């Protein structure tokens, strides 16, 4: 077990420094776990750190999934086989640039829900989650002979609130269910964060991207005779759609690691390997406005998105191995990459002609959020017919989260992106002038959820839309279709016709099964891509990401199916599969907190 004595970590009674690297099992295909963990060990790290994603483990209240790529216990056992200890950060909130910070969307079905505070209905859900999680983790705790040395209480709570009764309640739940290994809290380097986010008798660690020798000493104000530890050393950063791709020089990363080693301090490198926000799992920030995160979580990590070595990997490896007297032996192989050619999209299935096979239909007086209908991710369609005699007036669509396409009698009349309307929050929306008419007008509003806010005060980020009005008259009597795109096998495909409008495009291809590839989405506008039924994630012509990572485990030698959901229209009739990624980088930058 890991203990603290005289200001130092001790493992089974011997001095120990935690050299951890973050790698989230839910962002890495299971068939790649062993390879990535082996590369972590080969770089001189002794510990792997991972968050736990509550939202994927409990997609419906009381329905838990710890199978396949969500088998956390299998991931930790594989780490043990590689000779690695583990740090587990179970939340319930994780941030992580992950949809809703890891919270399950169904929490927002309750209009009165209060998150991350001492609110009984919320804590009851947290307890149920921890009880299920404990069944997976208890056998793997160090005290039970496993490799899990540390568990985190909440996550960067001081950046959000100061409800210490809530923090104590989370800790008590963890103890009640048997998750009683060495506990810690982690917060940013500001005093208000450390003050709000800690508990008196729980180890505090600090998160930052530079200046370790200065910042770690701030911990002395809050605890005595405790080891210095950085809970997240940010070696890079994440990207938003429409922004630049972030990188960081390898020599700068190595210089920061040298500072930790000089201080005999422990650290967790965030990220060692970032992986991918597959499907609709990427979250969003709300700073200068709504800022959704891209599909790639490359993070300028030591291993890139597909598991390849970077210059920073080799620089950090030399430092860690020299510090510990580890011989530099031959590294595991680089990932194999392939370029199978262009997938010709020979069939199309228009969205509006396939609504019956894509989701459920609901009748509601007024628009309600996705969460109200039990929908976690994807798209939602609101339809209403206005009958009577109407003068010309403005049609107002309010509370749009996040992108909307307005159709009047089947014709596209307006497109709205929440990202283009900074600081509007509750009034997110748009309006169009509707000419006078007598009879009826059919109004359809397709809304795309781009990722729930994962950090800060805007967590209550319900998706869909809130209100539709014509002039001063609020509209009622909506038909709502939830479109989570969880299954596409019922789509009715035909030969491609029109190039515009939301539609699914399909093609087939052959490939090797021992090499990864990348889908080149340049020339497409906006949507998502499926390979053999698996959702690779979102693309957007705004960049910076232009390709989507296709892991080899998805591929068959023949007859692979590729489906593009293009929601705005394209002239492209094929998707090239490349042996390299493409990132649009108009400039490089790294944030100020990376600088000394």
UniProtKB/TrEMBL annotation:
Occurrences of domain Glycoside hydrolase 35 catalytic (ranges): 9-320
Gene Ontology BP terms: carbohydrate metabolic process
Keywords annotated in UniProt: Glycosidase, Hydrolase
Matching InterPro entries: B-gal_1-like, BetaGal1-like_ABD1, BetaGal_gal-bd, Galactose-bd-like_sf, GH, Gly_Hdrlase_35_cat, Glycoside_Hdrlase_35
Positions of the catalytic residues: 156, 232
GO molecular function: beta-galactosidase activity
Pfam name, any one: BetaGal_ABD_1
Domain spans labelled Beta-galactosidase galactose-binding: 502-560
Domain named Beta-galactosidase 1-like first all-beta: residues: 367-483
Assigned protein family: Belongs to the glycosyl hydrolase 35 family.
Annotated protein name in UniProt: Beta-galactosidase
Higher taxonomy: Bacteria, Bacillati, Bacillota, Clostridia, Candidatus Fimenecus
